Fold this protein.
Amino acid sequence: MTKAEYSKTIVCLANSRKHAGRCIAGKVLEGREAGTWVRPVSGRSSGELSLSDRTYKDGVPAALFDIITVSMKAPAPHPFQTENHLIDDGFFWTNLGKASWHQIGKLIDNFTGPIWEDVSSSYNGKLDRVPENSAAHAVACFGSSLTLIEVDNLDIIVQVEGAEFNNPSRHVRGDFTYGGNSYRMMITDPDIESEFFARTNGSYHVGEALLCISLGEAYNGFAYKLIAAVFRP
């Protein structure tokens, strides 16, 4: 087997639902690139990772907080997802262990401004999307299309959405405030979805949490802010 072009070692901070696969992203833990976001993507049109893409040699799939080395072929920046790197699917990922809560705490982003830009809300959300035509500029100013923030007032809401458009289905959203602004975003963390879909519709107070938020690919003219992972102390 030939050698990979290069590799990246990251702490997995997002392992979220995306089409038929997953979107995985994390931050470099150590070295000169420490704190840098990396999003491994496949060669598929939407970049989602299949189960085999994200599995270690022992057959176990990558999980949140794993410290992972991923072989890469080349940078693959999206118009506003500049952290994307195309994986070399000829190599298994390597699990170097689990990051501690203390290590994760050092990776929290601290800022006082908006999360990208706060100009638009979806029908069921609050400040949960960015117009596609301004997304690249918003990310360039913000510094990345991913962020890890700490909140102290998270509520998780389970409700039926889309009945007004004759397409009702249950969704899970996170409601919180940050920097003085109120947000309500879709949660795409599969473990959180499973846990709260098992409950009745309603609002559930969580309180303190770390949220990994990703600016997803554009849909109908907007890039949506998605809660890709929820970490509860």
In short: The chain has two domains: 6-105, 129-231. The helical segments are 101-105, 132-142, 190-197.
